[in-house]
Amino acid sequence: MTTPFVIAIDGASSTGKSTxxxxxxxxxxxxxxxxxxxxxxxxxxxxxxxxxINQQLDKASLIAHLDDIQLSFKKxxxxxxxxxxxxxxxxMKVSDVVSQVAAVSEIRAFxxxxxxxxxxxxxxxMDGRDxxxxxxxxxxxxxxxxxxxxxxxxxxYDELIxxxxxxxxxxxxxxxxxxxxxxxxxxxxxxIQAEDAIALDATQFTVDGMLKYVLTLVRDRIMGI
Length: 225
Prior knowledge:
Layout: E1 5-11, H1 17-28, E2 31-34, H2 35-48, E3 52-53, E4 56-57, H3 59-64, E5 71-74, E6 77-80, E7 83-84, H4 92-95, H5 98-102, H6 105-118, E8 123-128, H7 131-135, E9 141-146, H8 149-162, H9 169-185, E10 198-201, H10 207-224
Parallel strand pairs: 1-8, 1-9, 2-8, 9-10
Antiparallel strand pairs: 3-4, 5-6, 6-7
């Protein structure tokens, strides 16, 4: 589809946003943008440059160097200044502090501007935490995914173990509950459901079942344009 059409998917960590977004993009021929990966990319960059040590963020230094950071997606992988960081950004080291980086207003403004450019004049499915409320408040379809924290933690834990990660279920659950609190209470663009978003409990669907259901919603919206 070449006509501009935006699907915005919001929700907390590990609710299946990216899995759904990737499936929709593939089925519909849309561009997929994982906005959460972009925040993770900046978090990793800050760690690599010594601006985020022991969970202490040097906001001034990161903000001062934002224009030096080039983010791009190629075949679903995130590149930071030409380097594929897709595996590194999913580590617990990044997960533990990404909400801290995402709470900085200057960083959010920087990435929202890039996200809007990525979603302009093309069919796109974008997932994150403020896509339907801030990035694309006039999106053609807005979804808000929810799921029990324990189920989300188990899913994330299984993913990390499959990637040879070293962590415990308890650490993952703590990380998820802490991120839920930080993301939903931050002053700038908190995680909330847009008034016109359709809420979906991921625990009530299989991955394929949710994809098929949302595809019917998309096609209804496309037919209505």
